[in-house]
Amino acid sequence: MRDFWLSVRNFANEPGPRGRQRVIAFPMWADSFDARLFQKVLQHINDCSEVCEYLGESMLVAGRHPSTKPHEDEPVAVPCPMILLKSFQARELTEYEKEYGEPDPFAALPSEAMDGIAAMTASDDDIMTQTRSWVEAIICKMKVCPFSSTADIAGIPAGGVSYPLTHASTGEEVYEQFWRQVLELQATDERTLSTVLLITPRFAMFSAGGFDQFADSLNEALTSLRLEDQVQLVFFHPGYTFRDGKDRLGVDDGAANFARRSPYPMINLLRTPQVRKAQKGVPTGSVYTTNERNLEVVGSVELQQMLEAKDWAGVFEHKYASHEENTWK
């Protein structure tokens, strides 16, 4: 999947005439990649087009599998799974793209988002510092995740945490970066790398709904591509709201939502075996209940002020004692 999205991104940004094509062949899948799973891959790609800039807008995708009966105009079966990309609309590069060689991160923003544009121009160092500060305060200190010891240590068994930061601003680019991190997680020992927080400050920063739709496409992919036994995902966004409404809002006007309200959009990649091991010790429902109570101690108003200022020092000033072992103290 990483290679596919890389090809899509490169193909989309190449100037050329309408109708140009590119074929992506997967020879390593010839014997082991069955037709049904290949169709699920194509369905996932089609679902992803809902949040992409080029796919479905100026680019068509079609697939061919060795087991598929050839068309009349294609008498020879393909030797391995192949995906065809075809440009159906001539696209001229914008002045920004001509100068910088990448999509304009401001082009698709609604006018009301311009007040928060400073978030997209923050330096990488600032973004990283603010993100780690949030993890230390909300995730670790308030024990939103009871299995995160520090911003650098988490999971069972305890392992490292990585914070890859991408400047990707289109769905195609973020999908590529996501699958790159899936491969990295699978290729690294769990005690070296337990979990990944992929930070995407230029993607859907001002659209919680758009980011939510993107999250759905990835969760569905893990199921359809048979990866849910290896990787699980948690999503964070500055405007995150739990879907089950008032049942998860708590008594303090939604303070519980701040368990997922991070300074920038983020995708948390978790190892499924570690998640299941953790759930045996502390049930998910217990974690939710504890989170709601702890966040209500600080309150949604103060938590929102911290989020806007990107300063969570106030969390360390609150003290709260409880009989629950995994409660913030």
Report what the structure shows.
With 329 residues, this protein is α+β, with helices and mostly antiparallel strands. It has 2 domains: 2-90, no CATH class; 122-317, no CATH class. Helix content is 37%, strand content 12%. The chain has helices spanning 2-12, 35-48, 95-100, 118-121, 124-141, 171-187, 208-224, 272-281, 284-298, 300-309; strands at 21-25, 59-64, 82-87, 153-154, 159-162, 195-199, 231-236, 266-271. The strands form 2 sheets. It has a 5-stranded mixed sheet with strand order 4-5-6-8-7. Helix 2 packs antiparallel against helix 7 (208-224).
Low-confidence stretches: 109-116, 246-252, 321-326
The best one-word shape is: globular
Helix content: 25-40%
* Total number of helices: 10
Query: How far apart lie the N and C ends?
Result: 43 Å
Biggest sheet details: 5 strands, mixed
Q: Compute the gyration radius: what is it?
A: 22 Å
Overall tally of domains: 2
Strand composition percent: 5-15%
Any chance you could write out the topology, listing elements then pairs?
Layout lengths: L1 H11 L8 E5 L9 H14 L10 E6 L17 E6 L7 H6 L17 H4 L2 H18 L11 E2 L4 E4 L8 H17 L7 E5 L8 H17 L6 E6 L29 E6 H10 L2 H15 L1 H10 L20
Helix pairs in contact: 1-6, 2-7
